[in-house]
Amino acid sequence: MRIGITCYPTYGGSGVVATELGIELAALGHQVHFISYSQPFRLNGREEGIFYHEVPVSSYPLFEFPPYDLALASRMAEVAEFNELDLLHVHYAIPHSVSALLARQMLATRGRRLPFVTTLHGTDITLVGLDRCYLPITHYAIQESDGVTSISNYLKEKTIESFEVTRDIEVVTNFVNCDVYAPFSDEELRAEARRKFAAPHEAILMHLSNFRPVKRVVDVVEIFARVVSKMPAQLVLVGDGPDRSAAEWLAHDLGIQSKVHFVGKQDRVNELLPLADLMLMPSELESFGLAALEAMACKVPSIATRVGGVPELIEDGFTGLLYKVGDVDGMAQGALSLLSDKARLETMRDEVRRNAQKRFCASLVVPQYVRYYEKVLASSGK
């Protein structure tokens, strides 16, 4: 198939999933065209069968805010016509599904059918889409999509409840390439790599996000402060965003800044995650928890919050530990209990890797998208 994919190319879950999906689809022999205002950060330009089409956005004095959604719709229609795309797959409803709807309508006037699939990722439904400014158009775009998927049962139910959606929504979970995201096969090599951040006797806790308020990165520092007061440890914070400064100052004020490593945005997080003993994910809300899944594939359990779709990914006490939002004391105690019980931690490490392989590997999930595309194309008469 020839598939157009639109996503936010920035450091965030929806963009990561969309990019990884495109890479996996291309590996299966499909032709993938990314359409966005900049190249998705996880594309490195060497994947065969993948093409990138930039969306130019003109700025005129009349426009206080350049109309990206209209420029995107025009570019979608152009790319689809010139490259004979079979369908579009847009990630994050606002504004991508609206732009895809306009592109479909434009091409229909020229006798060409372009179905599109919308994948709902989280805050496009739970936050942005519920804003009264966007709720009616979000509802309309979802209803008018040729196919709709969500990354968890939680998000599907939330969409139906909040938007009174009457159409079918297919749950296709996030996924991870279990060959790329994998633990070290040699423990001596892992121990050597860990020395970049920690001494041999120190634990490594890690956090990966875009540092938005919903990720509660300040809680990460609070949890670590409690852990490091009881045992030798280091904290590695991967990513960047609006709450980085607050986290940096808190580490400074608590006197633990020398043990907290802000490594910024990283293209190859698969090389960092296997170094960790635990992942910290104290989010206010997660519709799935992609960072926790990537850690699981690397044999790293998570200390997380019992919110949204997280319980669909992590079984409390078995493949991680779950707590109420803001329970930094509980999460710290949970981390300490695992780090102090090497046998239990090792058992959980084995189980999280096994669980990721059994349920969330790309080789299992990507074919679900392919079958869904085929279903959409068949129902649209293509």
What does this structure look like?
- With about 375 residues, the chain is α/β, with parallel strands linked by helices.
- It has two domains: about 1-175 and about 360-380, Glycogen Phosphorylase B (Rossmann fold, 3-Layer(aba) Sandwich), CATH 3.40.50.2000; about 185-360, Glycogen Phosphorylase B (Rossmann fold).
- Helix content is about 40%, strand content about 15%.
- It is built from 14 helices and 13 strands.
- A seven-stranded parallel β-sheet has the order 3-2-1-4-5-6-7, with helices on both faces.
- Helix 1 (about 15-25) links the parallel strand 1 (about 1-5) and strand 2 (about 30-35).
- Helix 2 packs across helix 3 and helix 8 (about 215-230) crosses helix 12.
- The longest helix is centred in the last third of the chain and has 18 residues, at about 340-360.
- It is globular and about 70 Å long.
- The N and C termini lie close together (about 10 Å).
- The model has no long low-confidence stretch (mean pLDDT about 95).
